[in-house]
Specification:
With about 220 residues, the protein is mostly helical. The protein has a single domain (about 20-220), classed as Hypothetical protein af1432. The protein has helices spanning about 10-15, 20-30, 35-50, 65-75, 90-105, 110-120, 130-145, 160-170, 175-185, 200-210, 215. Helix 2 (about 20-30) runs parallel beside helix 4 (about 65-75), helix 3 (about 35-50) crosses helix 7 and helix 4 (about 65-75) crosses helix 6. The longest helix has 17 residues, at about 35-50. The radius of gyration is 17 Å and the shape is globular.
Length: about 220
């Protein structure tokens, strides 16, 4: 019937961009991230894409889907096993992602947008002021953390949509696995974990209490761990 819309299938909900750039990003991150962190990174993109219409944002008009995928998929690249681990993980990942994108022919201005989205993804209240990619990466993260990074738009994703995303990219104890990786990277160098930064606080809380407040809070989040 005219005017009706079909419900996206599970395959459509979990489809990644079919571009050479997106494929190159996946080839970069899959071997160097744990399966749990890799799945989290992909879910961040899938959830960001679902939230975008709630913000009246459309791919091709308000943002480039390849750049959104790159920013989401590489936002934890600073935790990669083969990284130098000499800066806080957000900045290290942003530097590496921008360099990779430029090597693939992405303009320096577009690569810088991705850099900002990655470097600021733990900076609530700042990222949201730095452009569409920053906003959407934060929104995708907020949904994947099940409301702990509340933006008020978690209900943009239905239980059915979330089930399809989680079936394609299971959580695999994401919060604990991600925290393990952040703490391990932070512990390698004092410069990786400045006080009151996310890596600095996660390291301190693990050392003092054995568990972070994030891990404790996740027990009551929408998706759990």
């Amino acid at each position: 019937m005219p005017g009706t819309t079909s419900t996206p299938s599970a395959a459509e909900l979990t489809a990644l961009p079919g571009s050479p750039l997106a494929a190159a990003v996946v080839r970069l991150i899959r071997p160097v991230e744990t399966p749990s962190v890799f799945n989290h990174s992909i879910r961040t993109y899938l959830f960001a894409r679902l939230v975008a219409p709630r913000l009246a944002l459309a791919a091709g008009r308000d943002y480039d889907d390849d750049l959104l995928f790159a920013a989401c998929a590489m936002h934890d690249l600073g935790l990669a096993a083969d990284g130098p681990h000499v800066q806080r993980f957000e900045v290290e990942g942003a530097d590496r992602a921008a360099e990779f994108l430029v090597s693939k022919g992405v303009s320096t201005s577009d690569a810088d947008e991705v850099w900002q989205a990655i470097a600021l993804h733990t900076s609530s209240g700042i990222a949201e002021r730095r452009g569409t990619l920053c906003v959407l990466v934060r929104e995708g993260l907020a949904v994947d953390f099940g409301g702990l990074l509340a933006t008020g738009r978690a209900d943009a994703v239905t239980e059915e949509q979330a089930a399809a995303v989680h079936a394609g990219y299971p959580r695999l104890d994401m919060v604990s696995s991600l925290t393990d990786a952040i703490v391990a990277q932070a512990a390698k160098n004092p410069g990786n974990s400045p006080r009151y930064s996310i890596p600095g606080e996660f390291l301190r809380e693990r050392q003092e209490f054995g568990r972070t407040r994030m891990e404790h809070a996740c027990r009551s989040s929408r998706w759990g761990n």
